[in-house]
Amino acid sequence: MLWDSLLRGLPLGSLLIWDSTVETRQDPAYKFIRHYVDERGYSHEEEVHRYSERLPDFPESYSLILDGQQRLTSFYIGLHGSYTTRVHGAWKKNASSYNRRHLYLNLLSGEKNDDHDRGLVYEFDFRKSGGLNTAGDKYWLSVSDLLDAEDELTQRAFLSKDKFVESVRSELPPTISKADALDTVEDLWRGVNEREAVLYETTVTKDKTARELFIRRNKGGIELSGVDILLALLTGYWDTVSDEGGPKDAKNEIEQFTERLSGHDRLSDEGFSFGKRFTLRTLLLLADETPSFRRDGRYDGELLKNSEEIFRDDEFEQAVEDAFEVAADLGFHNAALSSKNVVAPVVQFLYENDYDTSEGNENIHYWLATAVLNSIYGDIGSQRVLETAREHVRESDGKEFPAAEILEDLSGRGTTTHLDKDVLDGLLEEVDYQSGSRLNVLLTHLYRGDRRAGYAGYEVDHIFPRRKLAKAEYLQDRGVSPELVEWYKDNRDHIGNLQLLTGPENKSKSDRDFTDWIARIENGKVEGVQDIDNYFSTHQVSPDRDLHKYPQFKQFVMGEGNRRQRITERLRETLPLRQLPE
What b-and-e string marks burial along 363-381, b requiring 16 or more CB atoms within 10 Å of the CB? Predict the structure, then answer.
């Protein structure tokens, strides 16, 4: 679309150029991507890249693009570069799985009389080769033919109009209209060489003002996120030279860090995957900056420099690994966390203290359970919670995670910030089949970690079939009184009607009535269930057969000594409940 606009003479906005000198340079600069690949980890051709490369050296004076980098990249790739993609379904590691292509213009496109409000007048495509197509209705010319055969893109590399048109004319087959084709050829030459489709602005402002202009100008078009802006600033503030003397890039380094964490055997088994947002927020937390992403880019530069020291400390990565391993040991795998930010204060505590995670961890358990089950981050806000936690972690003696102190400080904001028997009773009435991480925490603790809700291999199943509990006629045919039908529908997702089954167990259960499935277990037809007594014990289900019938569903869930009470008793043992002081 950009090249179509160029040939049609449509305005393409403005470029903002920062003219500066080596003496004033603090921010990094990057090369424009010439040969682009749409694939992570591509390594088959040295000159093909997914990310821009850092420039290690500068001339005495130079210009940096503050706004317009995407448009200039599109020009550069189309005019002088290439675009590489992987063949769908092909093996990533094979060089033959990739197609490297160049930008071509169909010389038989460019009709001026059609209504092209939104479509392309000039047809461009990335192709391996040009010339006349098989159908004879398209003739593809490489856009790079505008240039002489030179490796560098300089003013001297551009062919004159006469030389360019004549070189194309000599190659055109006699079967096409040369007049129409050459009109498009001239449009291409004029679009690149004569039309002033781009406004050009320059500034010689100071470094900090240039950064502000960069942020402000990029709020138009595809707006930079707070994460993008922070990454750009970190690259400027962090040390940019490696031990070997080459340039570094904060964005690439952080991506490599998150890939290592996501590939960690234990953490990946627990379903954890890590991205830039969590890593950056945790670094802000540890560096004493506000742990949030600011679109205005107003961070303390010294604190951003401090974050580099933390990031490059091996103890930081170790603290992240240890914190999430502890969380998993305590029943908080990925699906049992409302957000990885819940673990960030634990990362800070382990990073700043010499704490042995092999024993106890009761305070960490209490923090995780209380924060997730009471939705503290969502109700109070991540920034407030993290800043409060940071203060108390710093003030602690490092012997125990200060869960009670953090939660006490967060109280009084309309959110429950403790976990005791009364809170648990309320949760068992509130949390149901739709409750996400909170349900996963309760069910995982119900099964003492032997089965993990939201974890690969286990599925949350309704003991009495959910669909049938909403069918009034079906229920009444089985002896359910009409006045209970609505209660059944309203409470079919109650935690008292939920169990965790393996895949084969759930497949066997399907939509069967509970009494029918019990009979299958007794007949040895359910894979993985040893016997009926083992089933009753594992799932905290009453062995009273009368309660397994539809007329007794309410009694099964809520009755004295039945599943709701059994769940309560088990969770009082496995959750880290604490009685508030009088």
Answer: bbbbbbbbbbbbebbeebe
Q: Which sign does the torsion angle of CA 216, 217, 223, 225 carry?
A: negative
Instruction: Count other C-beta atoms under 10 Å from residue 538's C-beta.
Output: 16
Distance CA 560, CA 539 (A): 17
Which residues make beta-bridge pairs with 100? 84
Distance CA 232, CA 211 (A): 9
Identify the residue with better confidence: 407 or 359: 407
Task: Check whether 117 has a pLDDT greater than 50.
Answer: no
Cα–Cα distance between 70 and 77 in angstroms, integer?
A: 11
Contact yes or no for 98/39 (Cβ under 8 A): yes
Written as six digits, the tokens of 366 are: 């209490």
Query: Which candidate, 395, 317, 399, places its Cα nearest to that of 361?
Result: 399
For residue 27, pLDDT beyond 70: no
Kindly report the three-state secondary structure assignment for every residue of 14-66.
EEEEEEEEHHHCCCCCECCCCEEECCCCCCCCCCEECCCCECCCCCCEEEEEE
| Contact in structure between 517 and 468 (CB atoms under 8 Å) | no
- In single-letter form, the type of residue at position 30 comes to Y
Of the segments 62-76, 283-297, 478-492, which one has the largest average pLDDT value? Answer: 478-492
Q: Which of 419, 565, 417, 552 is nearest to 496 (CA)?
A: 565
- Contact call for residues 87 and 18 (beta carbons, < 8 A): no
What residues form DSSP beta bridges with 82? 35
Contact 345, 393 (CB under 8 A): yes
For CA atoms 389, 392, 394, 400, give the dihedral sign.
negative
Determine the average pLDDT of the residues in 94-102. 91
User: What does the DSSP assignment read for 521-572?
Assistant: HHTT-STT---HHHHHHHHT----GGGGSGGGHHHHHHSTTSHHHHHHHHHH
Domain spans of the chain, in order of start: 2-199, 224-411, 424-574
| The residue to which tokens 């200039």 are assigned | 72
Rounded to whole angstroms, the Cα distance separating 511 from 460 reads 13
φ/ψ of 123, rounded to 5, equals -95, 120
Geometric angle at alpha carbon 100, from 95 and 105, rounded to 5°: 170
Model confidence, pTM: 0.69
- The pLDDT of residue 223 is 64
If you ran DSSP here, which 8-state letter would residue 344 be given?
H
Q: Please state at what angle helix 250-262 crosses helix 276-286, rounded to 10 degrees.
A: 110
What are the DSSP calls for 382-424, one per residue? Answer: HHHHHHHHHHHHHHS-SSS--HHHHHHHHTTSSS-----HHHH
Yes or no: say if 221 and 20 are a contact pair by the CB < 8 Å rule.
no
Tokens 């550069």 found at = 76
Element (H, E) at 464: none
| C-alpha triplet 328, 439, 468: angle, nearest 5° | 140
If one counts every other C-beta atom within 10 angstroms of the C-beta of residue 445, the result is: 25
By the 8 A CB rule, do 437 and 368 touch? no
